[in-house]
Design goal:
By secondary structure, this protein is α+β, with helices and mostly antiparallel strands. It is built from 2 helices and 16 strands. Strands 4, 5, 8, 10, 11, 12, 13, 15 and 16 form a 9-stranded antiparallel sheet that branches. Strands 1-2-3 form a 3-stranded antiparallel sheet, with helices on one face. Helix 1 runs antiparallel to helix 2. The N and C termini lie far apart (103 Å).
């Protein structure tokens, strides 16, 4: 009987100890979860701010427009997060663009506490206007468009700034095949389907930033790169016609300024697009 009483007492004691441990540990667990979530929120806000200020500086350095740069900062940071932007300053002089931003990060588990702030800045050289470049309308160097090409122009008002072939990569600083042509223009400049086909890709793609691929059949594809996500107007599986407005020029990914990177692939291999583009 005495042994049985000891067993009952021991069980009750363990049960009481477990309850006490539960009461102590659970608040600590919730506190730890809140701290982790706070770090996640802060980290995402920091990444968004850094990406947005880089996009704004790209626009300012190529177009020299402070208002457009400010709009790009807000767009890239996220329109639903505008209230988190405490300040944004941008200055353009003859040689350099300098931008500074301050964002607010709320303390999610302590109501009434002041928000945290994060300061970030970015700068870039002011890019000079393109001189002696070729344009679709026959600019200073004349028209580069071939006659009898089987594809239409992917944009109608851009400037050719880089041709197909090996070159010194402006970002990676290595000699590398430039698998297409670069057509510079203001952010949002319309991009058109170069031929009838089916969109097989429309989204993010590493160095391309965002990439649209149209399959035209018979082993031919056209690639369109560097658009901002909000300037992509087609989706995979969509049928398009030559001349359809599919996107707008941007500067996402490995890009030094707003432009369309345009490639033509035949049987899986990139070829010089200038051999395939006609005037209409």
């Amino acid at each position: 009987m005495r042994i049985f009483s000891k067993i009952i007492y021991s069980v009750r004691r363990k049960k009481g100890a477990s309850t006490t441990e539960f009461i102590v540990i659970m608040p600590l667990f919730f506190l730890l979860a809140l701290v982790v979530w706070q770090l996640v929120v802060a980290g995402l806000a920091v990444l968004d701010a850094q990406a947005a200020i880089r996009d704004a500086v790209k626009v300012a350095s190529t177009e020299g427009d402070e208002e457009k740069a400010k709009e790009q900062f807000e767009t890239s940071f996220g329109s639903h997060q505008k209230e988190a932007i405490e300040s944004f300053e941008l200055e353009i002089d003859d040689q350099e663009v300098i931008a500074k931003a301050k964002i607010k990060i709320p303390i999610i588990f302590a109501e009434g506490m002041p928000d945290m702030t994060y300061n970030t800045s970015s700068k870039a050289p002011v890019l000079q206007k393109y001189v002696g470049a070729y344009s679709f309308g026959g600019g200073p160097g004349g028209s580069f468009i071939t006659t009898g090409g089987i594809l239409g122009p992917p944009t109608k008002s851009a400037v050719l700034t880089s041709r197909f072939g090996y070159r010194f990569h402006p970002i990676r600083h290595i000699r590398k095949l430039h698998a297409g042509i670069d057509l510079a223009g203001p952010v949002g400049t319309p991009i058109y389907a170069a031929g009838d086909g089916v969109v097989i890709r429309a989204g993010t793609s590493n160095g391309y930033g965002n990439l649209i691929i149209i399959d035209h059949g018979n082993g031919m594809q056209t690639w369109y790169a560097h658009m901002f996500p909000q300037h992509i107007y087609v989706r995979p599986g969509q049928q398009v016609k030559r001349g359809d407005h599919i996107a707008g020029i941007g500067s996402a990914g490995w890009s030094t300024g707003p432009h369309l990177h345009f490639e033509v692939h035949v049987n899986g291999q990139p070829v010089d697009p200038l051999r395939y583009i006609s005037k209409s």
